[in-house]
Structures are given as structure tokens and as C-alpha cells.
Design goal:
Layout: E1 6-9, E2 14-17, E3 23-26, E4 32-35, E5 39-43, E6 48-50, E7 53-55, E8 60-68, E9 71-79, E10 83-86, E11 94-96, E12 102-104, E13 113-121, E14 126-136, H1 139-195
Parallel strand pairs: 5-14
Antiparallel strand pairs: 1-2, 3-4, 4-7, 6-12, 8-9, 8-13, 9-10, 11-12, 13-14
């Protein structure tokens, strides 16, 4: 259909909606999962929210995993109202929310990659979602370092130029004084010669 941004696959019972960058998946048992922001761009040391919204008939178990070039890591698994099991790698860096979302604190370059969320209801039906996270280094800190280094070198250069100017001025005064002494000594010698 023209103008629509959704497709339905009847054999699997899944519905994917791509309008407004949200992805909605419905499993046959009635579990649905919405991923409002499937791509996240972050900078180092930033906190990011991996936002999802799910609905199901019973109590759900939510599990998040991270897949990157360093391997697959289980982040957290919890059942609403029962337990929260956070991986030791993410112990102080993850906050969970009842809607299935998680927040990662103080992200680094290793946090880039694919984040997979699985929502499983007590009847065994489940839904899956994926979020891609890109983490970038903060460039302005590098520029700040270069600017400070440039200012430092400029200050040192200015001090050296002033020092060289003072040395040159002192040398010039010393040569002038020496020249006057030599001239007056030569004059005295000439006067003595004339008097003799």
C-alpha cells in the first residue's frame, strides 16, 4: 500500500512498524514490543537510555544482551516485581525500568554495538528488539588540549624573544661603553705623546 510504512507477516504473526523510527513486534501469544529509537549515537562518558515499551497478558521476564566485536555479554535479566539479576560487568552502570528499558551510565568505546532485548511472558511467548549504539570520542577535548599547548608554546616563545632582546640590548650597551673607554684611553695616550 502506498504511503504506509508497515508490513504484516501473517505466517509468523509479527508486525513491524517503521514509521517515526519505532519498531513494533507482536509475537503470536500476544507479547508486543516497541523500540522507539533503534539507533543511538552517544559520546564517551554520556548516560544513554535504551528505551523500549512492551505489553503482554502475564508477568514478563526481560533480558538484555550486548553484542560487539569483543563478544556477547549478558547485561541484565529481571522479572517485574520479583528479581533483578545484573551482570558484574554492568553492576554499577545499569538502571532498569518497569517498561523494559535500561539506562547505561558512563558509556565507553566498548559499549558500542548491538543491544538485544527479549521479553518472555509466563506462557512462553516472547518478542525481540534490537538497538544499535554508536559511541564517539569527544573531539573538542583534543582540540582544547591542542589550544592549551599552542598557548603555552606561544608564551614560552614570547619570553625567549624578550630575553634575547634584553641580551642584545645589554651587549650593545656593553660594546658602546667599551668603545668609549677605548676611545678615551687612545685620546689620553695621544695627549701624553703630544706633551712629551
Amino acid at each position: 500500500m502506498e504511503g504506509e510504512s508497515s508490513s504484516v507477516n501473517q505466517s509468523e504473526g509479527r508486525r513491524v512498524t517503521l514509521g517515526n523510527a519505532a519498531v513494533r513486534r507482536e509475537a503470536p501469544g500476544g507479547v508486543s514490543l516497541v523500540v522507539p529509537q533503534p539507533n543511538i549515537n552517544a559520546t564517551v562518558a554520556q548516560n544513554i537510555l535504551l528505551s523500549v515499551e512492551y505489553s503482554c497478558r502475564g508477568i514478563a521476564t526481560i533480558e538484555w544482551k550486548h553484542v560487539s566485536s569483543w563478544g556477547t555479554t549478558s547485561i541484565v535479566e529481571w522479572k517485574i516485581g520479583n528479581y533483578v539479576n545484573i551482570s558484574t560487568v554492568y553492576k554499577d552502570r545499569v538502571t532498569t525500568f518497569e517498561n523494559g528499558s535500561i539506562q547505561l551510565h558512563n558509556v565507553g568505546m566498548r559499549d558500542a554495538g548491538y543491544y538485544f532485548v527479549t521479553v518472555t511472558e509466563e506462557y512462553g511467548n516472547n518478542a525481540y528488539g534490537t538497538i544499535i549504539v554508536n559511541v564517539y570520542e569527544i573531539i573538542y577535548e583534543d582540540l582544547h588540549f591542542v589550544a592549551v599547548l599552542f598557548a603555552f608554546l606561544a608564551a614560552v616563545s614570547a619570553i625567549l624573544i624578550c630575553f634575547m632582546w634584553l641580551c642584545n640590548k645589554s651587549l650593545h650597551l656593553f660594546q658602546k661603553k667599551t668603545h668609549k673607554l677605548t676611545a678615551s684611553t687612545t685620546e689620553e695616550i695621544e695627549l701624553e705623546t703630544i706633551e712629551c
